[in-house]
């Protein structure tokens, strides 16, 4: 088995050696810009880790690992247009740097490049890998559409929200895990379990992201309160809306666009209601529940317990819980 | 062998029975709208015709045929955003009807659906079919990028223009032909020849499209002069620019944005120069050259001459030359 550091550097090397044509420059330059822009390589790591659970050899999984990373970056490119987002990973987004048309077309090319990488997977596994990837990719689009739908909706339930993030965030992790497992030669049953593992991990990860946006984390040094200032319907907001009485709901609905309040006051007003209705603790509970469930699934795989250790470490580090 | 009418109705039936989820509506409704919006089904016809050259059975080529039609419609969806085009096939474009974000995301979903259809092709052919499709899809993106680049460029050569339309228009026909041939069990050599056939046919088709836009065709009832009014760098414009003297070039460059001229005067001014420099005849020559070359390639295939008859008829009807 390989250490997580070695797997990560295998991914970085593989991505770095990918060459794109020089022309047309406006089509290909944004792809290199986007791929070299950092990111934690969470999805390709999942491909390799899940492959490595069942197979000592992971080399043959590198194209698929690169494919899911390429796909992820494609979604960011197009999401940034849809969200009018000027910054991505601390740098100008492709949309801001090159404009709408370049971001659309380079994004399209990235999606095609993702398929091209995927097609390099071993031929006998290709039909199943493709089907997994296609389904996953459509689910991510569905999640993005629901997310945009929610902006227009008055009321979003917790169930609807969990369904949306299962599509928008978990599906790509689940697809990555299953593709890795297939490449490792896993059984149907182990594939199903790893899908479930990744879905739960994705939910825990997204809920924690929501929580950290409002309550922060020194380690990440993330700006606090962005979601509140945008009036975003996060897990915290939706849970608070479902628990608060009407007068508090009114604050939750309108604070972010109240011209009489400073940003700090908006954040304080909303967080006061979150706190009053115990929302952070409920979120913590959900996060722990999902995360424990994910780790529990790893115990049930048909491999020796010690083989699951790197995947556990990866999950812990993803959640910021590694020692 | 099957008649072209039967092949076309097989495509229409196959596309009509494709079902999409009801939700999220804004993701899937535009796909159905786009696919049912007409269009001549040129690309899926090419898949089936090229398959039928080598195989009596074409049923197994229907998913790939639908995939290239899906891909073509995906490009239209995204092109319409990039071109701010409000009308497509006489109806509001998806962009105009649902807005930018829906057009981006539904387009993405269509590209994924195209791959999903393609993946239903016979497993033993899948790696080659995928590679052909991936290369073709990237070429189409490259062509679209060059086309947009040309809008910003002062001077575009005829060679550059031909290269652009070979990517933007011919590549998809060529990919369709090769995928069909592969599904029919064609040899490498026949695949190469059919690729060449489709490239030449695509060039003839695109040049004729340029010519008809300025010189019209009663049969198509197409508005005349749209390209001239947009100041588009078509084959006619580029050829005229390369042949005209400076004063005429000045008219070609600026007539479309001259506030002193009516639309009819703009068109007349540009066409007078086209005529003076023999541009329509040169275009006709290129069209005939390319078209004859395409038909000539069919004579060299390793199949009986009679088997190529439906493909000839298809090519003639595409060029508006059928009896």
Helices and strands in order, then pairings?
The structure is a homodimer of 323-residue chains.
Chain A: H1 4-16, H2 25-35, H3 42-54, H4 62-82, E1 87-88, E2 91-92, H5 94-98, H6 100-118, H7 126-152, H8 158-184, H9 188-215, H10 226-230, H11 235-243, H12 246-254, H13 263-276, H14 279-299, H15 309-318
Antiparallel strand pairs in A: 1-2
Helix pairs in contact in A: 1-3, 1-4, 2-6, 3-4, 3-8, 3-15, 4-6, 4-7, 4-8, 7-8, 8-9, 9-14
In sequence order, what are the helices and strands of chain A, one letter per element? HHHHEEHHHHHHHHHHH
| Beta-strand residue percentage of chain A | under 5%
Stretches of chain A where pLDDT is under 50 for at least 5 consecutive residues are none
Average pLDDT number of chain A = 95
Oligomer: homodimer
- Global morphology of chain A: globular
Q: Give the fraction of residues assigned to helices of chain A.
A: over 70%
Total DSSP E strands of chain A: 2
The termini of chain A sit apart by 21 Å
Could you characterize the architecture of this molecule?
The structure is a homodimer of 323-residue chains. Chain A is built from 15 helices and 2 strands. By secondary structure, chain A is mainly alpha-helical. Chain A has a two-stranded antiparallel sheet. In chain A, helix 1 crosses helix 3, helix 3 packs antiparallel against helix 15 and helix 7 runs antiparallel to helix 8. Chains A and B meet through helix 4, helix 6 and helix 7 of A and helix 4, helix 6 and helix 7 of B.
């Amino acid at each position: 088995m390989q250490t997580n550091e070695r797997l990560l550097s295998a991914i970085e090397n593989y991505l770095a050696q990918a060459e794109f044509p020089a022309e047309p420059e406006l089509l290909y330059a944004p792809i290199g810009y986007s791929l070299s822009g950092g990111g934690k390589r969470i999805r390709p790591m999942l491909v390799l880790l899940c492959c490595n659970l069942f197979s000592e050899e992971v080399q043959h999984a590198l194209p698929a690992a690169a494919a899911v990373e390429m796909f992820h970056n494609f979604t960011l490119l197009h999401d940034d247009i849809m969200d009018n987002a000027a910054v991505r990973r601390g740098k100008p987004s492709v949309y801001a740097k090159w404009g709408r048309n370049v971001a659309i077309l380079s994004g399209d090319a990235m999606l095609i490049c993702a398929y091209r990488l995927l097609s390099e997977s071993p031929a006998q596994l290709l039909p199943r890998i493709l089907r997994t990837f296609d389904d996953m990719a459509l689910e991510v689009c569905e999640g993005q559409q629901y997310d945009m739908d929610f902006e227009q909706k008055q009321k979003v339930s917790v169930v609807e929200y969990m369904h949306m993030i299962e599509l928008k965030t978990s599906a790509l992790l689940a697809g990555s895990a299953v593709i890795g497992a297939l490449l490792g030669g896993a059984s149907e049953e182990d594939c199903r379990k790893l899908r479930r593992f990744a879905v739960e991990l994705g939910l825990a990860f997204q809920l924690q992201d929501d929580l950290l946006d409002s309550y922060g984390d020194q380690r990440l040094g993330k700006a606090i309160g962005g979601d509140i200032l945008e009036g975003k319907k996060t897990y915290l907001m939706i849970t608070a809306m479902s628990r608060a009485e009407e007068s508090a709901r009114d604050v939750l609905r309108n604070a972010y666009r109240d011209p009489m309040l400073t940003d700090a006051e908006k954040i304080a007003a909303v967080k006061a209601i979150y706190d009053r209705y115990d929302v952070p603790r409920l979120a913590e509970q959900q996060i722990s529940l999902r995360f424990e469930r994910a780790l529990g699934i790893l115990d049930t795989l048909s491999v020796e317990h010690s083989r699951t250790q790197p995947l556990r470490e990866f999950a812990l580090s993803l959640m910021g819980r590694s020692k």
